[in-house]
Design brief:
Radius of gyration: 22 Å
Number of strands: 10
CATH superfamily of the domain at 44-221 and 419-497: Amidase signature (AS) domain
Largest sheet: 10 strands, mixed
Order of helices and strands: HEHEHEHEEHHHEHEHHHHHEHHHEEH
Helix content: 25-40%
Distance between the termini: 34 Å
Bound molecules: glutamine
Strand order of the largest sheet: 2-1-3-5-4-9-10-8-6-7
CATH topology of the domain at 44-221 and 419-497: Amidase signature (AS) enzymes
CATH class of the domain at 44-221 and 419-497: Alpha Beta
Number of helices: 17
Length: 498
Amino acid sequence: SVPCRQGKFADLNAFISQTLTHRNGVPLFETDGQRDTTRFTLSKKNRLLAVKDNIVTNSLPTTCGSGILRDYRSPFESTVTDRLRKAGASINGKTNLDEFGMGSHSTNSHFGPVRSDCFEQRSVGGSSGGSAVAVAARECDVALGTDTGGSVRLPAAYTGVTGFKPSYGMVSRWGVVPYANSLDTVGVLARTAKDLFRVFEQARGHDNRDPTSITNATLQRMKEGRLRATVKARRSGSFRKMTKKLRIGIPMEYNIEELDPGVRQAWKNALEFFQGLGCTVVPVSLPNTKHALSAYYIIAPAEAASNLSKYDGIRYGTRNKSSDSDDDILYSQTRGDGFGDEVKRRILLGSYTLSSEAIDNYFIKAQKIRRLVQRDFDRIFSLPNPLRPPEQFDLSDMDESILLSNKLGPSQVDFIVCPTAPTLPPTLKDISKQTPVDSYMNDVFTVPASLAGLPAVSIPIRIPANYQISEAPAFAGIQIIGQYSDDRRVLEAAMMLE
Ligand code: GLN
């Protein structure tokens, strides 16, 4: 079950109904097509790079935090690290993670959990927890992570740093060990959004070795689409609104009862900040959010089960030596020893939901939910989705309650601002008592953007002293989510907020 009852947002209605005027009189953002943002090369301040250990480099081992890859060294370099090295980055280490990226607290690694000296008793988030801690502890300037369902944003939120998941396909996945290919993205963690921007500018771009990498022609078409939207808005008289008065959406479904009061306060402060700049804050509805988590935990394990089948001790993976001479047990012993419990759980889940008996009820349904989640976002963003024209598809077998909730009217916004996680970092003791499903709940606010492939950044927002908890950063992660391919404006918004 997914937390979905709505909580109280104190005086939210009062403050969303205020219309503040634009204070400084200058456009907040340049829209795409008017100005091409200057390309940065990495400066001295953002050269030292830590790399999550599921991204291959030819100079260091790549273990994916897994026993089955404990001896693996890649003969080639990933596109993203190659590009960053060419831009001046030097890699100072590979960082620990939840095995193959599966987890939310970085406690599922073959090499032991990621721990932070400052906040020893608490979760650092996962699965890119090692990258987040390396940034927070200043062991590097910036770090690469991967974000399939929140693995860059959640650790950023729990360690008080910024973390960015780009639009799906913007950064090449060549050399990134797949967890769930249709969701995997390479993200960046840094201490400031400006550093994220600089690194992202170097990392992005088409790569013909990744079949899901956005082509230059598509990138160009997206840019033209945004330009057309701008011109149309200018004609209809709302151009001013687009450049000077951004509309920020607050998804009401994210205001759940379980939301930590400190997180809610940080959320409110972030919204008030944008209002103070002249933006209009409006409530929006993303009705399928409540189904997103369940859909994610069907799709991701299904893809994972398929991806991980190649680790058999023959084609890939360290072979269990004692089973070497016995073909019957080679496969089961190698995989039994090599994979940790969470990975095995995902393989079982995925294999079941893909089985002929369950596929219609689980995998196919989850794909439909995924499409509904994408449509929720497309409906509320003022920019059109350059990849998905409005379409019809067969929903005849979906519950009526799901279809009814889709009929809510449109509300056009530039960004969505919402918490990254419902709570502040839990203690490791509490986590050890949780069921796997409890820990899946941490991803409730991050998976919707993943299912829709949207760019999302998590920014640390200070929590008032009376809401702070011991041994944790004095910040809560707040996300800014934008329309597909609107990555730069999302980062520009983050630069203003931090
Ligand atoms: N916690 C999520 C999972 O375990 C997300 C992981 C990720 O983004 N790599 O699947």
